[in-house]
């Protein structure tokens, strides 16, 4: 007796049924699904902590993440192999997720940081902060603003950034602000993976071919001047360190440097010398003074949102 | 660049999707070495956090039975060579 | 690969198909079956990878952080889907690098829909709604394709793709609830994408030379015209829910047939686009070729590094 073929169940598949189902947002990768990133979280500022300073601090960390995510998005369809396309997008997604949490924290800690739009604009605070602040209001470091360059430059930037951010977020897990502590605890897991991904690539490129080594050395030379800025402190950080809210920039930088020096040594790479950028004594990204690259990056990122200040997306 | 483009070899990927289940074959990726293969497998096949553990093995290192030996080898249980995953747990797929 | 059919082999193959069971990689199969599959799976994989481009350009301009995250996840999925499909094709004895070579030297095709430009952010929504919707109609039956690895890749892809379509519809719905300008953007976008979406099902059945054989081999399970009809029937109520007009004066319900009558797509246009005369053919292939070529030194470095590690271990 011949077996009856099973009924072609897929024929009944209604491709549109998925449109009306709710609650499956978790299907999206890496935190892209939530609408209010801090929904249900107590966002009151802890007693004795300075709300405006906390907001300014969260904007610094959020701006770093968003600007680097934007740079990583520029790799899309240009990565050296399809698997790296996926990897770079994962990192970008993590950073956008961190941005949203940090902006939401900033807006809750001090609503006055959120740009005002014409009445009736439905843009949520996180989007006002991302799309309606000019370069002078951004507080990111110069490192993340620099253009992508080749894959070696992207790897060098990423390993420096992730190593630094890991030391910051690692310390912030014990911040006196419970929201920042929770956001950091989540971020540590992500950023550790970013650092390991980039560190592994750095060793691979350093030890690969003559060409990959040459490109890696060139990338280190060109980006290293932006490393010094990561160790600087600023008024906001200083005040919050004293309150037990922020991470000590100098201590975090020391750990970062130690990691990077070990890594370069393992790859047989020389630590570059050369004058730091922004030049010592001049205000850097944390004070709103940026390299020329940030302006064009923001212009591209913000164009559509600004053309439709009352738009719904 | 004129030199021949070196091809990263394929690795087969096995994912344990939940504690208590076997690792199951889900597909393959390309990588230069096992370490990179593991990272690529994590990024490609568990990017929605579907897995708790991943194995990778170079495709060339798999010894598979040949379908010709089916009778002797697999008598009542059906073939289960590595390319015949049971991973796709159909109940999981919406509308199926 | 010699596949001179001996009686028992061919009989075994046909028995497997007759019982609606799957052909697996190490099974004997006719050369024509293998060739047809390689061509179809490769074309499908190329479509995923080329399909990243029209949407990828909006990653850096997405007007909200939520949309940016969703689009990053979506474009990343497409890279993932390309990898699943190349992986399925490789079980038939071809290499991804060879297939990539065939794509960038124009010897293999990809879906001609991706040769149309994306002109506004509404196109991100329309691609999700119409293009991914049409793709799902095409792909769901392929989950029961006779070739096991292809069918399994398709199950994974369809599962992820329903979210793609949903985000597109949701974006359009949100924009329709926004400003007049946004509503006009949505309508303009739907006007441009409607006919190309109908063409995604391929030429009419009487002009589709390979269809019959693919159906007999159960690689394909429905004709082009059947799938196109299904797509129209599912889409019209969705368009009404959105409040957009589909640009076809002949579109009307036919109670007798229990389906919608619709106008004839411009098949000459489809021929032109398939021949490479579409608005973006050259741009798409050049971008892919450049990324592949420019990534060469990175792939070489990783291979060299792996070789050195293996010998020093």
From TrEMBL, chain C:
It holds the Pfam family PaaA_PaaC. One of its GO terms (molecular function) is phenylacetyl-CoA 1,2-epoxidase activity. Its EC number is 1.14.13.149. Keywords: Oxidoreductase. Transmembrane segments: none annotated. One of its GO terms (cellular component) is cytosol. Residues 1-21 are annotated as: Disordered. GO terms for biological process: phenylacetate catabolic process. NCBIfam families: PA_CoA_Oxy1 (TIGR02156). PANTHER family: 1,2-PHENYLACETYL-COA EPOXIDASE, SUBUNIT A, PHENYLACETIC ACID DEGRADATION PROTEIN PAA. This is 1,2-phenylacetyl-CoA epoxidase, subunit A. It comes from uncultured Nocardioidaceae bacterium.
């Amino acid at each position: 007796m011949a077996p009856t073929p099973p009924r072609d169940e897929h024929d009944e598949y209604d491709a549109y049924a998925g449109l009306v189902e709710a609650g499956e947002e978790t299907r999206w990768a890496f935190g892209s699904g939530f609408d209010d990133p801090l929904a249900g979280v107590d966002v009151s500022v802890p007693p004795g902590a300075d709300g405006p300073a906390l907001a300014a601090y969260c904007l610094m960390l959020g701006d770093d993440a968003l600007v680097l995510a934007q740079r990583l998005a520029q790799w899309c369809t240009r990565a050296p192999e399809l698997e790296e396309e996926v990897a770079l997008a994962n990192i970008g997604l993590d950073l956008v997720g961190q941005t949203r949490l940090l902006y939401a924290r900033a807006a809750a800690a001090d609503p006055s940081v959120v740009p005002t739009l014409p009445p009736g604009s439905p843009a949520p605070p996180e989007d006002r902060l991302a799309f309606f602040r000019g370069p002078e209001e951004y507080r990111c470091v110069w490192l993340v603003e620099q253009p992508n360059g080749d894959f070696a430059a992207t790897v060098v930037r990423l390993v420096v950034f992730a190593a630094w951010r890991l030391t910051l977020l690692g310390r912030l897990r014990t911040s006196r602000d419970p929201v920042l502590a929770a956001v950091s605890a989540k971020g540590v897991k992500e950023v550790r993976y970013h650092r390991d991904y980039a560190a592994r690539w750095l060793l691979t490129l350093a030890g690969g071919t003559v060409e990959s080594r040459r490109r890696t050395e060139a990338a280190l030379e060109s980006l290293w001047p932006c490393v010094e800025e990561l160790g600087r402190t600023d008024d906001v950080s200083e005040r919050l360190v004293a309150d037990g809210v922020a991470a000590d920039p100098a201590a975090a930088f020391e750990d970062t440097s130690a990691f990077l020096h070990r890594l370069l040594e393992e790859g047989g790479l020389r630590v570059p010398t050369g004058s730091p950028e922004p030049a010592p004594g001049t205000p850097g990204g944390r004070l709103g003074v940026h390299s020329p690259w940030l302006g064009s990056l923001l212009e591209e990122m913000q164009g559509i949102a600004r053309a439709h200040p009352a738009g719904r997306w | 660049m004129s030199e021949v483009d070196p091809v990263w070899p394929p690795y087969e990927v096995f994912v344990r999707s939940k504690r208590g289940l076997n690792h199951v074959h889900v597909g393959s990726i390309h990588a230069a070495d096992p370490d990179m293969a593991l990272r690529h497998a994590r990024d490609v096949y568990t990017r929605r956090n579907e897995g708790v553990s991943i194995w990778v093995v170079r495709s060339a290192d798999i010894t598979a039975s040949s379908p010709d030996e089916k009778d002797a080898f697999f008598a009542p249980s059906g073939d289960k060579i590595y390319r015949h995953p049971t991973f796709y747990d159909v109940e999981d797929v919406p509308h199926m | 690969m010699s596949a001179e059919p001996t009686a028992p082999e061919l009989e075994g193959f046909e028995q497997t198909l007759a019982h609606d069971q799957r052909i697996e990689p190490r099974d004997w199969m006719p050369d024509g079956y293998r060739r047809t599959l390689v061509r179809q799976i490769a074309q499908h994989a190329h479509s995923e990878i080329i399909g990243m481009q029209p949407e990828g350009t909006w990653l850096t301009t997405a007007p909200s952080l939520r949309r940016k995250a969703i689009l990053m996840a979506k474009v990343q999925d497409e890279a993932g889907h390309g990898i699943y499909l190349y992986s399925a094709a490789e079980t038939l004895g071809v290499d991804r690098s060879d297939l990539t070579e065939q794509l960038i030297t124009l010897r293999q095709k990809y879906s001609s829909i991706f040769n149309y430009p994306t002109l506004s952010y509404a196109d991100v929504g329309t691609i999700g709604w119409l293009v991914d919707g049409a793709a799902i109609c095409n792909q769901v039956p392929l989950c029961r394709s006779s070739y096991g690895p292809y069918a399994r890749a398709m199950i994974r892809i369809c599962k992820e793709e329903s979210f793609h379509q949903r985000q597109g519809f949701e974006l359009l719905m949100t924009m329709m609830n926004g400003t007049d300008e946004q509503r006009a953007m949505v309508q303009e976008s739907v006007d441009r994408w409607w006919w190309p979406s109908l063409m995604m099902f391929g030429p009419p059945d009487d002009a589709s030379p390979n269809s019959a054989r693919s159906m007999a081999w159960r690689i394909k399970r429905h004709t082009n015209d059947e799938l196109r009809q299904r797509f129209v029937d599912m889409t019209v109520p969705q368009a009404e829910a959105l409040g957009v007009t589909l640009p076809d004066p002949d579109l009307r319900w036919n109670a007798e047939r229990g389906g919608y009558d619709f106008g004839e797509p411009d098949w000459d246009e489809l021929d032109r686009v398939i021949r490479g005369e579409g608005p973006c053919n050259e741009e798409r292939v050049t971008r892919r070729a450049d990324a592949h070529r420019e990534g060469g030194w990175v792939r070489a470095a990783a291979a060299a590094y792996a070789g050195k590690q293996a010998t020093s271990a």
